[in-house]
Write a structure and sequence with these properties.
This protein is α/β, with parallel strands linked by helices. The strands form 9 sheets. Strands 7, 8, 9, 10, 11, 12 and 13 form a 7-stranded mixed β-sheet that branches. Strands 6-5-14-16 form a 4-stranded antiparallel β-sheet. Strands 27-26-29-28 form a 4-stranded mixed β-sheet, with helices on one face. α22 links the parallel β26 and β27. The protein is elongated, with a radius of gyration of 35 Å. The chain starts with 6 loop residues before the first helix and ends with a strand. About 1% of the residues have low confidence.
Length: 811
């Protein structure tokens, strides 16, 4: 081993070994299956530190499961269809989908996503993800398209999917409908305007609104039937200012008497309440603007919403219609992707029927184990408050087309035989005639499916990659908490609707990385200076991985470079410790170069070796307990205490004298110590392997590589860790020795002395017989003479005779 760890060479060597030997291919593993429904990252630019954070946590669990005896199926995917990818391509190529046309735009998206996928893969490999890259998919590849379209056809035939012309949540910036799960709420300031309407018999009425630009879509004015101010308006009509059309005055119990003047206009559509009134009273539909977000006609024609609002207020002011204005703050729905306000448009769309099945979808959550458990509440709160079925139509180009044609003569919906999937109805002639009227006059659906409609099928895509039956439910779904309402929910929906099962046994929820402003770091936020590629130029991948493991499961964490420095110290300490271990194990004539599989050699060993075996056993039990609860940060803390305190601070110091001065000990004692060092080293590497795979692999091959049958540390399994003291008296003795050592160190530190400072004499005040441990204590305390006394004493360090030191301790 070199004196200093060269992480750049070590990382490349380890990754080359893993790739050449196909270490992580599930076909090369034995044991019960452990399958991971890995999140396919959205192909929409570069990865950021938040991705590194959550995906590395998944890899830590995968590596633990593999070394704990499971055959781990760890596939990887890329989510490269849908709006995020479209927006990425439009920005990068400085084009819009509508400018270049459907076919050319799809080709541009395919080219860009292929390039980005390769960049993503290279970064994941540099981070040491133990992914089986032979099991890789994209959500736009042929197999995924076929699975997605097959799912749609099956749900349509089962009655879960339906098409309806319906008011839809719509983003005019992205020019597509969106689902409720894609909305965020923000507080925005706006003007609350009191406008003068006039009844047909010339009575003035004040109506307050924040959306004056929708006056052209006003279809009624409503009041509460118990509002005594307006009961006389029953049956009358009112004239809309500027537009001068007449609309009815209608009583409705859902009007809030105390809000504004108690009168409210219904426009198609300003909000969800407008939609409810539209359906209840069967109003006519009068759209203000089209799918491009521009107003259709009248004085606002050609303007977008913000400009139209400014223009209409100027016109109303000139007409003397505004009586009062005040600034208010209210909640506004925005599209989570582009942060623009959501509008409502009447569009023919496909929906997945959710609302009638909320009770069943809530019950399914109880069949899945959630880590941390409180995340299940977030899921349930979301389902309980759902108000819309899942709209899966998107008016975009780059996505999976609906496998649907419509008969222009009788409106029949025609779906293809599943054997010819995937299909693109816009790029092929209808393969059949109408099943109802035999017409050839068929037209294709021009929408694509919501990207979540495919991502929700990742367990089914993984099942195809795995190639075996009885695959679901998968073992684990790892994901972030912000997509519980989308990816987790939609996947549960699909698994239940298709097969009446849960998609996975457990779901493990990670947190986000926060910027210095305490905001989530994301590509869309633009607040991610911590580019992973740049971090990898400064730090070893294992140091970055160490940082990801320090967070509590499910909790957001602020990025902190101080944790990186702690990880760097660990790598340095580990490398130096194993230089010492290699020097005193592999070079020993008493060592046969084979793996030590049990603790038989400890039967006649000194109590210090038995103590360490016991500590290894206790550490491993706690390590496994935490990992089975997916608390990898607590498992890491457990190893840290064992490695730094038990091994480095105590054991190596306790046995160092034996190894440096073997002539003072029996050959059997030295051989046992060397064997214990070897055995302990293997177990330290195994316990750390999930967290820092590169340096542990490098040390394994440097120290244990000669003659080893198992080529990679990451192919080894945890085994024969359990060890129980047979001699409790001996166990207690070593506990007292460690107390003595700790006290001597404290005394030296208090006097600002090196721990290597020799003591002319060490007096130990204890009622216990520790004479059998005399040589051990002398070696670590650097004491020339040890005196045992049963009398009480005081711990102190005294200097005399030209800087020689005498210590007394009490245990």
């Amino acid at each position: 081993m070199e004196k200093k760890y060269d992480y750049q060479h070590a990382e490349k060597d380890a990754q080359a070994l893993w790739d050449a030997e196909k270490i992580y291919a599930y076909t090369n593993q034995e044991g019960p299956l452990y399958s991971i429904d890995t999140p396919p990252p959205t192909v929409s630019g570069a990865l950021h530190i938040g991705h590194i954070f959550s995906y590395t946590q998944t890899d830590i669990i995968a590596r633990y499961k593999r070394m704990n005896g499971h055959a781990v199926f760890y596939p990887f995917g890329f989510d490269d269809n849908g709006l995020p990818t479209e927006r990425f391509v439009e920005k990068k190529r400085e084009i819009t989908a509508h400018q270049v046309g459907r076919t050319a735009f799809i080709e541009a998206c395919l080219q860009e996503t292929h390039s980005v996928e390769e960049q993503f893969k290279q970064l994941w490999q540099r981070m040491g993800l133990s992914v089986d890259w032979s099991a890789c998919y994209s959500t736009i590849d042929r197999q995924s398209r076929a699975i997605s379209q097959k799912s749609f056809i099956e749900l349509y035939k089962k009655g879960f999917a339906y098409r309806k012309e319906e008011p839809a949540l719509y983003c005019t910036a992205c020019r597509t409908s969106v689902a409720q799960a894609e909305l965020d709420d923000v507080e925005k300031q706006t003007l609350f305007n009191d406008l003068v309407f006039t009844t047909t018999d010339n009575e003035e009425l004040i109506i307050a609104t924040t959306r004056p630009e929708l006056l052209g879509s006003c279809v009624a004015v409503l009041y509460h039937p118990e509002d005594t101010r307006y009961q006389h308006l029953a049956g009358k009509s009112v004239i809309v200012p500027l537009f001068n059309n007449t609309v009815p005055l209608i009583a409705d119990e859902s009007v809030v008497i105390e809000k504004g003047s108690g009168l409210v206009m219904c426009c198609t559509f300003g909000d969800k309440t407008d939609i409810e009134w539209y359906k209840k009273h069967k109003f006519s539909y009068k759209p203000s603007f089209g799918q491009d977000g521009r107003f259709i006609q009248g004085p606002l024609a050609g303007l977008k919403v913000a400009a139209a609002r400014e223009a209409i207020l100027a016109l109303l002011k000139d007409a003397g219609v505004i009586r009062q204005q005040k600034t208010i703050t209210h909640a506004v729905n925005i599209h989570e992707r582009c942060k623009n306000p959501i509008e409502y448009l009447m569009i023919a769309q496909w929906f997945i029927k959710i609302l009638p099945h909320k009770e069943q979808l809530l019950a399914l959550a109880d069949s899945i184990t959630w880590y941390p458990s409180f995340m299940k509440t977030r899921y349930k709160n979301w389902v309980e408050n759902l108000q819309w079925d899942w709209g899966i139509s998107r008016q975009r180009f780059y996505g999976i087309p609906f496998p649907v044609w419509y008969c222009k003569d009788c409106s029949t919906v025609i779906v293809p035989d599943e054997k010819i999937l995937p299909v693109d109805p816009q790029e092929m002639q209808p393969y059949t005639t109408c099943s109802q009227c035999a017409s050839h006059n068929l037209i294709p659906d021009t929408d694509v499916m919501d990207t979540w409609n495919t991502s929700s099928l990742t367990p089914y895509i993984c099942a195809q990659l795995y190639g075996k039956e009885n695959f679901m439910p998968m073992s684990m779904r790892p994901q972030a908490h912000d997509i519980i309402r989308t990816w987790a929910f939609y996947t549960i929906v699909k698994a239940w609707m298709h097969d009446n099962i849960i998609p996975w046994k457990t779901i493990v929820i990670s947190g986000h990385v926060l910027s210095s402003e305490k905001e989530k770091i994301s590509k869309s936020q633009g607040n991610s200076p911590l580019i992973p590629e740049n971090l990898l130029k400064t730090y070893p991948a294992d140091v970055i991985r160490y940082w990801t493991a320090s967070a509590t499961l499910g909790q957001d964490v602020a990025f902190s470079e101080s944790q990186f420095k702690i990880g760097q110290r660990l790598l340095t300490k580990m490398w130096n410790a194993f230089i010492f271990i290699k020097e005193h194990t592999v070079t020993s004539a008493n060592f046969d170069g084979k793996m030590v599989h049990d603790w038989a050699f400890l039967s006649d060993a000194d109590s210090v070796h038995q103590w360490l075996a016991h500590r290894i056993s206790e550490t491993h039990k706690l390590y496994v307990k935490y990992f089975e609860e997916h608390e990898f940060s607590l498992a890491l803390d457990t190893i840290e205490r064992f490695f730094w305190h038990d091994v480095c601070d105590n054991y190596l110091e306790l046995v160092k004298d034996q190894l440096l001065h073997p002539e003072n000990y029996s050959a059997q004692q030295v051989a046992t110590t060397r064997t214990m060092l070897y055995t302990t080293g293997i177990r330290i590497l195994q316990l750390y392997a999930a967290y820092i795979p590169h340096i542990t692999e490098a040390i394994y091959n440097a120290v244990y590589g000669n003659g080893m049958i198992i080529k990679s540390l990451h192919q080894t399994k945890f085994s024969h860790y359990d060890y129980v003291y047979e001699n409790q008296e001996s166990a207690h003795a070593i506990t007292l020795v460690l107390q003595i050592v700790s006290e001597v160190r404290r005394l030296k530190s208090d006097h600002q002395l090196s721990l290597k400072t020799e003591l002319s004499q060490l007096v130990i005040h204890s009622t216990h017989n520790l004479t059998s441990q005399e040589r051990l204590i002398a070696g670590i305390s650097r004491a020339h003479i040890i005196v045992f006394s049963a009398e009480p004493g005081v711990s102190q360090l005294i200097a005399y005779n030209n800087d020689t030191w005498k210590a007394t301790v009490t245990v």
